[in-house]
Design a protein that fits this description.
The protein has 194 residues and is α+β, with helices and mostly antiparallel strands. The protein is built from eight helices and six strands. Strands 3-4-5-2-1-6 form a six-stranded mixed β-sheet. A hairpin with a 5-residue loop joins strand 3 and strand 4.
């Protein structure tokens, strides 16, 4: 990897940690901050994630572990509330580099896509619906809500990606580094116990 790509990754990592940006927007903003052409080659997400971990180790080592624990405990709470939909935690909270600015990302695998929405209504939860790119490149609905995290003393975004039950088969395939991209409640409890 060349020095420019590494500088983009390092700048993007800072934006991810300090401002809570997702990798894509962070990489594009890094280009602007570094005054590089918009068509510059961008580093992969794996490279940015490695830089995020390095940044956290250097600048957030005293606060990030407790913030990650708080977010994982909040994820556990929501996974227990929505257990009938086979929730799986993904994203930064699952991978272990989340800070207080990160949201909780859960994938729900439902027999009926509307059943998760009905469950939220029955729990008197206010949520917004949006559409994003899902597991296999298809559009999926995301139910987004805010949940108060006592340990952080602030609201945290919780995003529920709604998948068909059949999508669960391919959802746990390892990534390029051999890691599972998401885990169920039992896997999360093992992380919390470790």
């Amino acid at each position: 990897m060349n020095d420019v790509a590494l500088e983009i990754a390092a700048t993007a990592a800072r934006l991810v940690v300090e401002e809570g940006l997702a990798f894509g927007p962070a990489k594009h903003r890094a280009l602007k901050e570094l005054c590089l052409p918009a068509r510059s080659a961008l580093p992969t997400n794996d490279v940015v994630e490695a830089q995020v971990r390095d940044y956290i180790a250097l600048f957030c080592a005293d606060t990030q572990p407790s913030e990650l624990l708080a977010l994982r405990e909040l994820a556990q709470l929501w996974m227990e509330r929505l257990s009938e939909f086979r929730p799986h935690l993904g994203g930064a909270v699952w991978q272990g580099w989340a800070t207080r600015l990160c949201d909780v990302d859960l994938a729900l695998f439902c027999d009926d896509p509307k059943s998760a929405e009905i469950a939220l209504i029955n729990q008197n939860q206010r949520y917004e619906v949006q559409t994003v790119r899902g597991l296999h490149g298809d559009d999926v609905e995301v139910l987004s809500l805010h949940s108060f995290c006592e340990a952080l003393n602030e609201d945290v975004g919780v995003h529920l990606r709604i998948y068909d039950l059949d999508d669960l088969r391919g959802a746990l395939l390892p990534d390029a580094q051999g890691r599972s991209p998401r885990g169920n409640l039992a896997a999360l409890k093992r992380l919390l116990a470790a």
